[in-house]
Every structure is written in structure tokens, then in C-alpha cells.
Amino acid sequence: MIKHLACDLDIRVIVAGLQRDFRGEPFGSMPIILLMAQNLHPFTAVCTFEKNGQICGQPATETYRQIGGQPADYNDPVILVGDKEEGYEARCVEHHFVPGAPPNTLYPANQ
User: Fold this and answer.
1) How many CB atoms lie within 10 A of CB 60?
2) What sign results for the dihedral spanned by CA atoms 22, 75, 105, 19?
3) pLDDT by residue for the chain (111 residues), tens digit each?
4) Residue 40: burial class (beta carbons within 10 Å; 0-12, 13-18, 19+)
5) What's the first-to-final CA gap in the chain, in angstroms?
6) Which of 42, 35, 89, 45 is nearest to 67 (CA)?
7) E strand or H helix at 30, and its extent?
8) Bridge partners of residue 97, in order along the sequence
């Protein structure tokens, strides 16, 4: 559909989405969409990791998921709809970790 709009109908198409899921793996059809893009304008959020009352504040490129206030396990379902106790936070690479992740993944559990 994106290619049809952009190429066949000559319509400017703007797409926004997450590149990776909470596991650090390609999210849905985004890899294909990124390959079709003529221009990329990546944006970051602000890392919400808090320690001793201080928010990290570094650029956040990662999606951190928690369930019941704890980090989601690598084997949990990819998509979760919920409240603050079961939701997502923006995190920098330093403060992003995924328990149960295989050692060869982007975010090993031992961080």
C-alpha cells in the first residue's frame, strides 16, 4: 500500500513506528518499510530509568517493557496492552535489559 501511494499515485507518505520490539528484534513490518524509505528521520525519546530519585534523561532508542513493575521476560508475548504496571518505557541502551534473553541477542539478560 505504501509503495502504491508513493510510486503509483505520487503521494508523499510519512510513516512512524518502532524499529525494534522490547526484545531488540525487528518489530512487525518495520524492516520492510525502512527499506522502502527514501528519507529517514530517526527520533528518540528520553530515558525514563530512575535511580535514587534521578531520571537518566539520555536519548532513548529502546522500548523497555515491564509486567507488574518487573522487566518482561524474553519469552513473554511481544505485544502487551495494559496500564503503568504493565506497559512500556523509553530507555537508553545502558538501562535496557531483557531477562531470559539468549546471550547472542542485542540485550543479554546479564546487563
Assistant:
1) 21
2) negative
3) 888 888 889 999 989 888 889 998 898 899 999 888 888 888 899 999 999 999 999 999 999 988 888 888 999 888 766 655 578 899 998 999 899 888 766 665 544
4) exposed
5) 40
6) 89
7) helix 30-36
8) none
